[in-house]
Design brief:
By secondary structure, the protein is an all-beta fold. 2% of the residues lie in helices and 50% in strands. Strands 3, 4, 7, 8, 9, 10, 11, 12, 13 and 16 form a 10-stranded antiparallel β-sheet that branches. The chain has a two-stranded antiparallel sheet with strand order 1-2. A hairpin with a 5-residue loop joins strand 12 and strand 13.
Length: 201
């Protein structure tokens, strides 16, 4: 956030001390702003309901794409492009996060860092990676990189997009491959949005 241009307004006096708040949140307009809470994050292996491991696949020319692969040997899960750093955020000015924990997925591929984001192409919501580490501050126009971590059941989680409410990260079949995609979940729990997080050994 550019604090030089942050507009504050006086709300009230508490015990003789003036209380100020971001004017954007007082005007009646809901604006989501997030700040990195955990600088290190935590490394996780991401699996789908088939036990396949999510990886950021790159051919060395274009940005990586998120696909699932079946790894027979556990030691292969430490390969470059499979250890995701889940970076935790919190909202500015003490707002709560009823949707879950704000998370950014960050990954290192071939020596470069990338983070995942949502966008729209040909009237379809898609997932992509952009180069760079997860930013310290995430403004309203950048919240397509934020996903709310929620419980799916006792084993799995689900991740709702902050940019597209009601849309969740999911497993999608494409050209005989399972890819990481977005889908609008209907009422009830759709197992295709279930995500398992394993600790990196």
């Amino acid at each position: 956030m550019d604090y030089k241009h942050l507009e504050l307004c006086l709300l009230e006096f508490g015990n003789g001390v003036p209380i100020f708040k971001d004017s954007r949140s007082v005007s009646g307009i809901e604006v989501d702003c997030f700040r990195k809470y955990d600088r290190k994050g935590c490394s996780k292996i991401v699996r789908n309901i088939y036990g396949e491991i999510l990886m950021a696949y790159s051919d060395g020319e274009a940005d990586p794409v998120p696909i699932f692969e079946h790894h027979t040997f556990p030691e292969k899960t430490g390969d470059d492009g499979t250890n995701f750093n889940l970076v935790l955020y919190r909202k500015h000015v003490g707002r709560n996060t009823p949707h879950g924990l704000p998370i950014v997925f960050q990954i290192k591929v071939s020596g470069s860092y990338y983070h995942m984001y949502c966008t729209e192409e040909e009237n379809r919501k898609v997932l992509k990676f952009k180069e760079g580490i997860a930013p310290t501050n995430v403004e309203e126009n950048m919240k397509n990189i934020i996903f709310y971590q929620q419980y799916f059941d006792g084993t799995y989680f689900k991740f709702e997009s902050a940019w597209a409410c009601g849309w969740f990260l999911c497993t999608e079949e494409k050209n005989r491959l399972h890819t990481f995609a977005l889908k609008r979940a209907k009422e009830g729990n759709d197992e295709m949005i279930a995500v398992c997080l394993d600790n990196v050994l």
